[in-house]
Amino acid sequence: MSLNFYIVAFSVIALSFCIILFLLAFGRYNKRVLKKIYIDTRLYMYIVMISAIFYIGTIFYAFNFGTNSTLSYVVFALIFLLFCLSVMLTLIASLRPLKKIEVSTHDLALGKKNLNINFEGAIEFENIAKNLKGVQKKYRESDKKLNKKDVMYQKFIAKDYLKFFGKKIDELEIGDSIQTKLSVLFCDMRNSYFSSETLSLKDNFDLIKDFLELVSTNIKKNGGFVDKFLGDGVLAIFESEDDAITCACAIAKQLDYKNLVSIGKEPIKFGLSLNSGMCVIGVVGTEKQKQFSVVSDVVNLCSRLEHLNKIFGTRVLFTKSFLSNLKSPAKSRYVGTIEFDDLTSKIPLFESLDAYADAQKLPLSKTLQEFESGVRFFEKGDYVKAKQYFSFCVKNNSTDVLAKYYLSQTINQMATLLPMA
């Protein structure tokens, strides 16, 4: 190729770079760059533009005066390209902090908390880094406040329900519900009304507070959670029947010990009931006040069964459905079948013997078969045989309150069957 071709080619390249550099120097893009980068970049651009003009002038000078020195063109071309390369590298190095800013602000927008915000370069970059650190600090403080509020809310809301929904508390809507199998524990303090008449309001409140604290501590310890406090009673939820009955027995024994060491004070009387089955857990209330609720006959029946403890003189009662789902063996005895007016099916009931201390449990276990035989004869209407078995139980264990109750009922039923004189 001729020398003229190289001259024209270099001239076109030089003019193209001049136009590009001119647009970069005075265009809108460059005005958006930070002040220090803007000034530094312009200085480099001016140098390159002057070099390019000098190079083009040299080409025309050599061409007009017949100087055919190819080496001159090559040298000036290399100088020109070197300056262009230096400008490009300078821009890349100078604008690198902007990329870090973009990444950091993007991560901050996504909610990331632990960011490494450290930009090297102009003072403006340092100020941006400082401001972003301030934003991050405020964000962390705000997050801590929200977490603190969330912890406070969870003290009033059974947060354990959230695991059933797989959502955060603010994501739940009224009407959200799921169906699952649960075990329900109901615990009630018997003599709180009597205590309120003999104790001051403050002392009675402290008594109930200690009772509820003991019960709720055992519930949490055994894998359950409190659904709600009902005055001097507690409704608790478990996912396992074994955990529920272990908790009930622990509560009974600890209340026994509390009564034993509280010399001179009225002993705390209590009753517990257990039931299990399919339940619906849902969010109810209004937009301003939402709460979780368990809706099921399982809960209603459990509440009714607890009141039978007062009649039977028992501690822990549970249904046959609860007993059939126990994985670990539990010492219990059949106490009869209960029938409610609004329920079509009869409910077989059992009493936990593990809820008693060994000194009480042993004699109850020895008369277990006789007691259950007496109950079955009583239910069949064979009161003569029922009396024999219950009399045997009372004779061998005078502390068996339920055997005494059945013996009394048997005698009353036998009296109604006697012919009129």
Topology:
Layout: H1 3-26, H2 28-31, H3 35-64, H4 70-109, H5 123-156, H6 162-165, E1 177-189, H7 192-198, H8 201-221, E2 225-230, E3 233-238, H9 241-261, E4 270-285, E5 290-295, H10 297-312, E6 316-319, H11 320-324, E7 332-338, E8 347-352, H12 358-366, H13 368-380, H14 383-396, H15 401-417
Helix pairs in contact: 1-3, 1-4, 3-4, 4-5, 8-9, 13-14, 14-15
Shape: rod-shaped
The H/E string reads: HHHHHHEHHEEHEEHEHEEHHHH
Query: How would a textbook summarize the main sheet?
Result: 8 strands, mixed
**Unreliable stretches covering 5 or more consecutive residues:** 28-33
Total DSSP helices: 15
Structural class of the helices, strands and pairings?
A: alpha+beta
User: Percent of residues in helical segments?
Assistant: 55-70%
Which percent band covers the strand fraction?
Answer: 15-25%
What is the CA-based Rg, rounded?
43 Å
Total beta strand runs:
8
First-last Cα distance: 146 Å
Residue-averaged pLDDT: 77
